Amino acid sequence: MTQSTADLQQRLGFDPDALRNRYREERDKRLRDEGNEQYVNMTGDYSHYIDDPYLEEQISRAPLTDTVNVLIVGGGFGGLLAGARLREAGIDGLRIVEKAGDFGGTWYWNRYPGAACDIESYVYLPLLEEVGYMPARKYSTGREILWYSQEIARRYRLYDDVLFQTQVTALTWQEDEGCWLVETNRGDAFRARYVVQSNGPLNRPKLPGIPGIQDYRGHTFHTSRWDYDYTGGSAEGGLNKLADKKVAIIGTGATAVQCVPHLGEGAQHLYVFQRTPSSIDVRNDRDTDQNWWESLQPGWHQARMDNFNILVSGGVQEEDLVKDGWTEIIRNLLFMVKSEDEPDLSPAEIARKMELADFQKMNQIRARVDAIVADPQVADALKPWYRQFCKRPCFHDDYLPTFNRDNVTLVDTGGHGVERITEKGVVANGVEYPVDCIVFSTGFEVGTAYARRCGYETYGVGGQTLSDKWADGMRSYHGMHVNGFPNLFLMGANGQTGFTANYPHALNEQSRHIAYILDQCARGNQRIVEATPQAEEAWVQTIVKLARLNEQFLIDCTPGYYNNEGKPQLRSLQNTNYGAGPVEFYKLLEDWRGEGQMEGLRLA
Asked: Do residues 329 and 314 touch, judged by C-beta distance below 8 A?
């Protein structure tokens, strides 16, 4: 060991090389040959897992064969923001198709006990100033977010023409008419001049392909379709019907972190099956300060969203307005830089310091586990050994204490996952755990094919499908336009856009951009808008070039949906997001609009 290395270890209080090795070992344990193929498609015998348990009545209506100006697919935050921004631009003739029974998207489906946002509500909830609403707490509950989603729809008259309980089955471009034919499972065959696809990344539950999953004779459900008839209680907890039940929950991601405390409180016994522990930081939830709320000046919401986004993306701000666990790594980094007389601000050195700041943060996370969990063996199993943003970080004050309960057992699988399911229960580490109920907390499809996640195919010019177009990797312009698919706008985290941890922020930027383009088309009496082949190819090359900046980080990460289950190199580089980060991407869009040339788009 050199003197400089020894000095660094002494100054930091830890050995960076030892941590890198430990992270690598833990990652390697969890690599699986099948990658995303380890999850089954919820069709056929599995289709009941995506039924809607929240419907109060079935809507009956005649099929539609009319024509609308803009169709928006999806009624979550993306669809709501698209509708709101189009309304603000004076664009009428909107229709929304949503498979659920109401607006809300992710928050319609996820009503499990304890559901709440994990980014502070003052930056997470969109349109707060426009709607004139202030969340009740720093972290809004799922129930409040669902209500707020519906309030946005009411405010922007999005209930005027919405088709609930309806799923698109095909979108087909009609060349002679210059519009889209929209077919649905309700027999609809209507036309739309423009289509905005906002299907959402968290709409299709993911079920693990565990051997024997169909042999189990007990009760099962996915957390995104919570069965309160079986568990009793409500979104606030009180799962009184589980008092005589042994329950297994498979998965320990963000959803499990929120519902495990309620399952532990309600069940006779709870078994938590873990492949990879989550990073659990302090939540410190609290009521909204009314005086603070009344002191805010116009423009506060966008400024706060921008501040948070810049910090979590590695940028610098004079003040950290949010000051939470999401922004702590950048605070550690800035402290390092400020403590040096002549700091080296080269990209390589900033990356090195960022890694050290990350190590500091994760050491703090692991120390918190030791401070809370009484059993040292259980505590060790609950410690995350990876960089913080390899998986979505979690913030909760009741999850770790749940493992101090006598009726809660952590079944750590050493990174291998559950072995199989039998008629009576779950097998892990060679041991069978008989249970009355299995709760699948296994997340949502993110890395699977776009058409599979949408639930329908899109047919462009000449009948080419979007699946065929993207067979060798996504091709788009700004992640929102596709050559050969006129008048089609993509929203969400499909790839080739600026991804941010605060997902509604990204949707807000995209919805503004789409509204601008459609407004320009209306002003110029243009009926067709489509990415040119040249603009699409240039954007693809930009994405591929910048993707290499982040590739090694993803390779080194523990497997999860952020890195294609540990195999980012097997996913086309062009399927990734804009490598320079969301701040630069949103500025790029703003500058593009400012030029007013509609560069890269063919108008007709």
From this structure: no
